Amino acid sequence: MPFTGVSAMDRKREFVELAGRAGANVRTLCRRYGVSPTTGYKWLARWRAEGAAGLAERSRRPAGSPGRTPAAMEEAVLGVRAASNGAWGGRKIGRVLRDRGVAAVPAASTISAILARHGELLARAAEHPGPLARFERATPNELWQMDFKGHFALHAGRCHPLTALDDCSRFNLVLAACGDERATTVRATLEAAFRRYGLPLAMLTDWGSPWGDAGGELTGLAAWLMRLGVRLLHGRPRHPQTQGKEERFHRTLKAEALAGKSFRDLAACQRAFDAFRLRYNHERPHEALGMAVPATRYRASARPFPEVLPPIDYAPGDLVRKVDSDGFISFRNRPFRIGKALRGEPVALRATAGDGRFDVFFCSQRVRAIDLGAAGPSCGLVDDAERRPRGPQDPQPQRP
Questions:
Q1: What are the start-end ranges of the E strands in the chain?
Q2: Is residue 86 a contact partner of residue 120, using CB atoms and an 8 Å limit?
């Protein structure tokens, strides 16, 4: 008969009174009352020592906890957690503490338990099969990814965060609180980044303004990057996964710097961005980097930013034409539209085969294709699938 319910104390008293009598068979009584001999003898010893009070239920918590995490360590864990705006879990917090030289850092599971004990809820990772294959450039500054994060309201106006990330190291190069998304704003921000870090070999952006145009036209910002010798690459329309590292950075920015926060103006927002950027580049462990921080893998570019744009030189065999004020060139007595962004600039035509097809280059980048054999003037935008960076598992570009 299990000792449960309102009569549990009465049953215990009945058991110990019978078991305490001279000549009583304690083990037989244990079987009849449904308890183990260990429990029966324990109750009997307590009853003899303390009387009825010894039969009351007692906490099973141990008197001491020698393995409990020290209070100072728990405070350190909670401090790192608070600095991340409540976004980091056990692995990242443990790595940060070790990087700071803290001794005897607990395991990630222990840190997670500390967070749970203090009411810090851990976000459950979204279920996602993950990419079939990752691609990343082998060295820093081979490719920068750049984009605007979705704008949000301030107490006065709106903020349009402009971000740029190095593809190899995930180092955050640009994090600017902008008041608009104009080409002049982006160019000024890029000039400051180029002066500090040098020029990348290529930049990956989407087709949105000011880098691209829905109608296939080159933009002034794109032309400026080409003049600098920076190859401009575009992801496929409506495929944000092409800029997956930027998308992931935006998610981190939202969780660790923006969630639950409000800002008076752009200056206040920029101060928060600067603090986050320092933490992201130099303190925050990155799982894709083996829990290293981006700053350990990044180095500045050896290509300096030229304060004066270099002259445009083409090969001796190139057919050079100047773009007129309407964005056209004349070739074989026929007009071909190149784009108003290149007005007044020289472009080079290079034959691709003996069938009247030519590629049009501005500086070192192919920007148009001309087909003299078409029924009418044919000058099309270069297939963007050829211009964006492809990983080893990416499909080959499909031509129309």
A1: 144-148, 152-153, 158-166, 172-178, 202-205, 231-234, 319-322, 328-331, 334-337, 346-351, 357-362, 365-371, 379-381
A2: yes
φ, ψ for residue 235 (rounded to 5)?
Answer: -75, 165
CA triple 210-214-220, angle to 5 deg: 35
Q: Give me the residue label for tokens 């992201």.
A: 280
Local mean pLDDT, 10-residue blocks, the chain (400 residues): 62 84 86 88 87 79 68 76 71 77 76 71 49 68 93 94 94 96 95 96 87 79 93 72 81 90 94 94 84 90 92 92 93 90 94 85 90 65 43 37
Q: Helix or strand or coil: residue 96?
A: helix
Would you state the pLDDT for residue 379? 59
The amino acid at 52: A
**Given the structure tokens 């020698």, which residue do they identify?**
66
Residues 380-397: tens digit of each pLDDT: 555 443 344 444 334 333
Model's pTM, two decimal places?
A: 0.67
For the chain, which residues make up each domain, given as ranges?
8-55, 71-117, 144-296, 319-386
Q: Please state which CATH number belongs to domain 144-296.
A: 3.30.420.10
